[in-house]
Amino acid sequence: MNVLIVYAHPNPGSFNATLRDLAVRTLSQAGHSILLSDLYTMRFNPVLSAQELQGDLQDIQPEIEKVRRADLLLFQFPDWWYGMPAIMKGWIDRVFAYGFAYDDQHSFENGLLRGKKAMLSLTVGAREDYFRQAPQRDLMRVLEPIHYGIFAYCGLEVLPPFIAYGPGEMSEAERKATLEAFREHLKRLPELEPLRFSST
Question: pLDDT tens digits, the chain, 200 residues: what are they?
Fold first, then answer.
């Protein structure tokens, strides 16, 4: 399987970077081929241009080719303001282009990216109990615009996300346990039941 990891964090020493490196190792050891788009290192321009909006995709073609080759897209990022970093949203704005990822006739089960899978791996700033205290903090609800409005809309099969809660507050033992949980999540990729959405 070809896996494209789209990674966004400005700090090379972050827990997100540790998760990214673990994903590369674990998936490579399982025999998968890895592609990586490290958006901050690439100094990726997140701004969709007027030319691209009119269908000139020349500048973004290398990233489109990565998606074209990939069987699985794994997005690794920190949750900021209940969403992904702007640089990653800009990557989606530019790479998931009209005519490549979607058009007026193709969406959901008939989406142009059907046959591929997508999965989120993210960190959040608070402990898990914080998010369970109120319905508006339900992270599956928070992630729905990505899961449903982007991935499912374009025809991608959406795998359950991996969420690391409050890495800044973790003890060393908790960090090791979280990394081991992520390793197991990745090993179980073929067995993960995709999320289900209705297009109506």
Answer: 999 999 999 999 999 999 999 999 999 999 999 999 999 999 999 999 999 999 999 999 999 999 999 999 999 999 999 999 999 999 999 999 999 999 999 989 999 999 999 999 999 976 766 667 767 777 778 899 999 999 999 999 999 999 999 888 888 999 999 999 999 999 999 999 999 886 55
- The model's pTM: 0.93
Helices (H), ranges, the chain: 15-29, 39-42, 50-53, 61-69, 86-95, 128-132, 139-142, 144-146, 172-187
Q: Is 94 helix (H, G, I), strand (E, B) or coil?
A: helix
DSSP letter, residue 191: G
Exposed (0-12), middle (13-18) or buried (19+): which is 171, by Cβ within 10 Å? Answer: exposed
Instruction: At 111, list the tokens.
Output: 């989406």
Answer whether 87's CB lies under 8 Å from 77's CB: no
Q: Report helix, strand or coil for 15.
A: helix
**Could you tell me if 103 and 154 are in contact, meaning their C-beta atoms sit under 8 angstroms apart?**
no
Question: For residue 198, what are the CA distances in angstroms to 108, 120, 158, 160?
Answer: 9, 20, 13, 16
